[in-house]
Amino acid sequence: MKYLLTLTLLVILVVSCKSTRKISTAMSKKDSTTIVIRPTDNDSAKKVETALAKVKASNIDFSTFSAQMKIDYADSRDKKYDVNAFIRMKKDSVIWISINAILGIEAFRVMITPDTVSVLDKINKTIQYHSFDYLREMTNLPVNFSILQDLIIGNPVFLDSNIVAYTENESFTSLTALGNYFKNFATFYNSPDFLLSRSKLDDVDVTKSRTADLGYQDYVANGTRKFSSKRKISIAYKTKLDIALEFKKVEFGSLQNYPFNVPAKYKLK
What we know:
Largest sheet: 15 strands, mixed
Distance between the termini: 15 Å
CATH architecture: Clam
Strand content: over 45%
Shape: globular
Strand order of the largest sheet: 1-8-9-10-11-12-13-14-2-3-4-5-6-7-15
Order of helices and strands: HEHEEEEEEHHEEEEEEEE
CATH topology: outer membrane lipoprotein receptor (LolB), chain A
Structural class: alpha+beta
Helix content: 10-25%
């Protein structure tokens, strides 16, 4: 059962994956134009400025969020698993996750705040308390609460203003950002909403070879928001992992509670 918890957290923090293989991009070289950004090139700088403004405008803002998440997972040995998780979030405050295993039995309940990570293991009847550093150590990444929120909501992560290349064709616009930790090749649909299509992260430290390929599909309207209800993730770390996420019963702005009662008989782990 510990595996289910690790898998779910790994999915949420999927940018922790490591790989040495090349992942193909969504852009066709023969149909696209790449512009290498130079500080003195006013035209390219204006295009990047406009694109970044569209990215910012397309980001999902929220007060509260809730959804059911179905996780299908397959590794290189053709072992397949499926997990159901229920997620509730209050912006900048709390992320609450209930993880169900076989026959819909709740296996774990997780409470994440900007400072702490609490894990209720209902199978082994234990409770764990960690600082937020626990997630950083588990993923070996400079994640914070805000990044974790964006990963769940579907906003781009590790995409700063240091854009080193700009690519566009009739269907997509791509921005390549070089940050302190990752080179992010982010691709957006050329639509009025400028929605995220794919994000490929490569570690700037070649000795670590961390990379993640995240695909965003099936956007559904939820009020003024467009939410990616299906996502595909490719990971290669010792073995190849393919993960599919499907979000259902997505709600924004609803009143929520975050129950996390610890029975007296549970042992501190």
